[in-house]
Amino acid sequence: MTDRREFLKRTFATGIAATIFRPVAGASEAAGVSGLPSHAGIAQTVLGPLDASKLGFTLPHEHVADGAYYLSKWPKAWGGRTEFVAKAVEKLKLVRAAGVSTIVDLTTYDVWRDIRFLEEVSHKSGINMIACTGQRFFPPKVSGVSMPARTMEGLAEFFKKEIAQGIDGTGIKAGVIKIGIVAKKPTTLEEIGLRAAARASKATGAPIRIHTDAANRAGDSLAVILEDEGVNPARVSFDHSDDSGNMDYFLGLVRRGYSLGMDHVHRGMSPDFKPPFEKRAECIKLLVDAGFADKIFLSQDAEFGGSLIPEDAKEWRDKIDPPDGMLFTTRKLIPYLEQIGVSDRNIHTMTVENPRYFFSLS
Ligand SMILES: [Zn+2]
């Protein structure tokens, strides 16, 4: 569809990239080289607590649970729920076979989180899943659910409850807090949510991942709020950071101790989004070369439910979903990073060691 896409096709046809990246066997036991604590704590998955050293290769920013919403909107797309679960499991088994051991689902309650669906597909696919609490705050309120609270105390209590007791009346607990901040500066309500997330994180040890407007350097102003709340920056990731492409912005945040989620890299393959794929990948390499592999996460922010949309409604979804779905990182991004000189060791740090540390409740 574009020159870039052609370029990538050629690139990936060459020998070095033709093999699907697979994590080194036993890699999750490897000693840390990144300065992160080498001992692992306990991560909270939808099937219960798990020694974080067993998380293995992890995609830290994805959306699997939203599929149940799409199924309710287009019920004939993949049949009923049973059929959909079976097809989801079939697809997820391919993701597992590509070496992905854990998926973190950042679908909050207000954008169609379906905790029983996540539990079922995790159980049947063999992929560990970590569910989130938090709040997306995006207008319009698509799901039609009302907010549990609008005060800092109320929201913090809600987040803490989902982490410590469980989600939607189940005993399935959240293992991470997701907050959505739409623009450069948070709205009043978004700031209340961010501060509530900070307090819930400090009380429970759960890490925080934030949807950020990286192109407008949102992380800079959000860091001020987080630091005012006394959150350890090592427990926070600014996601969609590769939408920035600005090394000055990246270095400012990683030097303060924050992590960067590089999870929109696929968007750079379309002329509709800047910066281009190669630029996004190059920024990852520059950060690694500068010694910050321990602050980088790789993922692809895929909406699994997007695959349920009927063909004639698919165009808009295709624009933002990765062309390989949940396999973009392993099939395209990592081989490309290897080709431009990022070592296996550093890829291991970004995909195995960082998640092991980050998702350990501490
Ligand atoms: Zn997302």
Topology:
Elements: H1 3-13, H2 15-18, E1 42-45, E2 48-51, E3 58-62, H3 67-73, H4 81-97, E4 102-105, H5 115-125, E5 128-135, H6 152-164, E6 176-180, H7 188-204, E7 208-211, H8 218-228, E8 236-239, H9 247-255, E9 259-262, H10 277-289, E10 296-298, H11 315-320, H12 328-339, H13 344-358
Parallel strand pairs: 3-4, 4-5, 5-6, 6-7, 7-8, 8-9, 9-10
Antiparallel strand pairs: 1-2
Helix pairs in contact: 4-5, 6-7
Bound molecules: zinc ion.
Main attributes?
binds zinc ion; 12% strand; alpha/beta; two-stranded antiparallel sheet; 362 residues
What features would you describe in this structure?
- The protein contains 13 helices and 10 strands.
- The protein is α/β, with parallel strands linked by helices and 362 residues long.
- Strands 3-4-5-6-7-8-9-10 form an 8-stranded parallel sheet. It has a two-stranded antiparallel ribbon with strand order 1-2.
- Helix 10 links the parallel strand 9 and strand 10.
- Helix 4 crosses helix 5 and helix 6 crosses helix 7.
- The radius of gyration is 19 Å and the shape is globular.
- The structure holds zinc ion.
- Zinc ion binds next to loops.
Category from helices, strands and their pairing: alpha/beta
Q: Which hetero ligands occur in this complex?
A: zinc ion
Range of strand content: 5-15%
The profile of the biggest β sheet is: 8 strands, parallel
Helicity level: 40-55%
In DSSP terms (H or I, runs of 4 or more residues), the helix count works out at: 13
- Low-pLDDT residue intervals, each spanning 5 or more residues: 1-33
Shape: globular
User: H/E element string?
Assistant: HHEEEHHEHEHEHEHEHEHEHHH
Q: What is the count of β-strands?
A: 10
What Rg do the Cα atoms give? 19 Å
Chain-averaged pLDDT: 88
**Widest sheet: strand order?**
3-4-5-6-7-8-9-10
Q: Terminal Cα separation, in Å?
A: 46 Å
